[in-house]
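In response to a reviewer's request, we include the raw inputs and outputs for one of the modeled complexes. The two entities were modeled together in a single run.
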Amino acid sequence: MTLFLIGLGLGDEKDITVKGLEVVKQADVVYLEHYTSILGVDKAKLEKFYGREVILADRELVEQHAEEQLVKLAKHKNVALLVVGDPFGATTHTDLVLRAKAAGAKVEIVHNASILNAVGVVGLELYKYGATTSIPFWEPGFEPETPYDAIKENKARGLHTLCLLDIKVKEPSKEDLQRGVSTPRPPRFMTVTQALESLLAIEQRRREGVLGPETLVVGVARIGQHDQRIIAGTIAELLKTDFSKPLHSLIVPGTLHHVEEEALEQWRRG
Amino acid sequence: MTLFLIGLGLGDEKDITVKGLEVVKQADVVYLEHYTSILGVDKAKLEKFYGREVILADRELVEQHAEEQLVKLAKHKNVALLVVGDPFGATTHTDLVLRAKAAGAKVEIVHNASILNAVGVVGLELYKYGATTSIPFWEPGFEPETPYDAIKENKARGLHTLCLLDIKVKEPSKEDLQRGVSTPRPPRFMTVTQALESLLAIEQRRREGVLGPETLVVGVARIGQHDQRIIAGTIAELLKTDFSKPLHSLIVPGTLHHVEEEALEQWRRG
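The model returned the following structure tokens for the whole complex.
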């Protein structure tokens, strides 16, 4: 049988494609992956819209027990795994696809929008974005400077940088892991403010002039949802801006041409 | 009233989102933009699925007469402009959005998959792609080396390059433009083979060792459609491969990690 990976897009239950909805209605079992991103609606709303049960699949299921569960099921049943955005935003699913194929299951993909293309709404040209980077929550002993390097290298080529901000859903704390227990902490979503503070802290260490309080950046929240928010301003301005509910992302523009400048003017605060 | 920009995704009539379909059914007038990309189905099939008339909008309408037509209409009516992929793959629409807003129309976006995220199906991680480049058809006096530079710079950073291949739909020839006439030529879509020949010709000139017959590349055709094709191989191998119908795209991988290597193995020819 078949493992269907179905993108849900970014907004609400109606951002699934007509094709995706048909698969959901016919699949034997429907999982919702819910740790790499979040939709603007909850599981209950999806279940009502689909008219069927949806099982939450957390990181543990998808990454660690994938073979035993999803792949095994897909050998004999039609299994739909719903993914917020597009199914291929994360490596996880490439791995899952390879394992499912190796086990003899068919794999079909139903694509949808992801932050990587929907961010085009900001008005910076998508082909002028360099490599995407992720800004992680720092932990003691884990304060990576990779986002700073990505921005630096992109800027040197005149390219924009999309920074995806960390999400911790059902993540055990390091202390719990060390003690061998797994009480999950409440979900945490990095805000634009936290991301900017992290980048400024790296600038303080490195002092390579990649960014500072006067650097123009664009903060975005809930892209593709009805209450999405896009604000362009200096880092100093955005540090004081509340973007409200998750998910937030941050764009550090490279060289702007005039249509891009004009586009960003829409998002400046009066 | 409102100008709705609605992404159609990449495959067929059922790749529109549920939200997008609701808008199409209720809009006063529905245009289909048909010059930057193509869907796997024709206008008649869309019209049948939507149960309503769809007007083809060519480059001239969207870029040159946008203000007079789409924007003017959107002041008093609900206008849907359907775009293959996601509405923000091209600058055109940012410009259109700005003009519509300036004219007092509301603008709403319904996102969908585009080649920029759907290419994730190949198994190379999306965050490891550098800037996207376009490979144009050469004309006398127009033989740009920008794709070569993009690949070179991405490779230097270990990043993959997605090369979008030229499309000429209803494009007048240069000679016709000079003579002031506008008989459009038949549509042309660059093939993987043509793209590779173009890159090798630039390598011949530049001799910087960015690519050669032994370089591993990935050719893709009709991504997101039921008959999509993905083949990984050396440039020498892919020069002899027929990917059949458009659209084609080309990926030049950067540094591969092991899951990516394993993913590409799926697409090697036996």
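As requested, we also summarize the result in words. The mean pLDDT of chain A is 91. The first strand of chain A starts at residue 2 and ends at 7.
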